[in-house]
Prior knowledge:
This protein is mainly α. The protein is built from 7 helices and no strands. The chain has helices spanning about 10-20, 35-45, 50-60, 65, 70-75, 80-95, 105-125. Helix 2 (about 35-45) runs antiparallel to helix 3 (about 50-60), helix 2 packs across helix 7 and helix 3 (about 50-60) packs across helix 7 (about 105-125). It is globular, with a radius of gyration of 14 Å.
Amino acid sequence: MNPHEEDINIIDIAHALSMLCRANGHMTQFFSVGQHSINCAAEAKKRGFSDRIQFACLLHDASEAYISDITRPVKAVLESYREIEKELQKIIYDKFNIKDLSDEEHLKIDICDDVMLSAEFDAMHPHADFETEYKVLSMPDLA
Length: 143
């Protein structure tokens, strides 16, 4: 509950995110948070976003390596969890020299996250029900 930059390890992040299934396992097949993160970075690149935004997209769910993933509807009502996640994510971004993201940069990350979530749900969720106003530009092979 009191993380420091020296506690953060990229190997731990990569390993844990590769083992965590998106949507709390409610997919038609295993699809990792790690693959989602890679797809978000590819989406940022396809949109012409900066290397900084691409890297931030790659790490945008890195806090989940330490505190797990919680589905959006549940996370929305867990204010304490969101505060912990936000602080941990800031420490992770700082560790990898992605300091002081602007509101515009956060919006770009959120756009990539949302379009990938929408594409993932369309391809692998039995009750695809997540929509976003943005369209995916970098369509990975999700099935």
